[in-house]
């Protein structure tokens, strides 16, 4: 009986450790996602600005 309780206690401790690791991983992934979303917005703004500049330059070209 004691051996079985010790085994169950060990399994519960393992589960708690896995849960805590998973929680930390999710927290880290959420942080990474927020940074990547911000970077994506920054790059999208740069592309938009470059597109606007290119269109302005194209509008200045003489039409044949």
What does this structure look like?
The protein has 64 residues and is mostly helical. It has one helix and no strands. The mean pLDDT is 96.
Give a brief rundown of this model.
This protein has 64 residues and is mainly alpha-helical. The protein contains one helix and no strands.
Distance between the termini: 94 Å
Q: What portion of the residues fall into strands of 2 or more residues?
A: under 5%
Helix/strand/pairing class, anyone?
mainly alpha
Major sheet size, sense and barrel closure? none
* Fraction of residues in helix: over 70%
Radius of gyration: 28 Å
- The sequence of SSEs as H and E is H
* Extended strand count: 0
**Backbone shape:** rod-shaped
> What does the average pLDDT come to?
96
How many helices does DSSP assign?
Answer: 1
Low-confidence sequence ranges: none
Based on the model shown, name its key terms:
64 residues; mainly alpha; single chain; 1 helix
Give the helix/strand layout.
Layout: H1 2-60
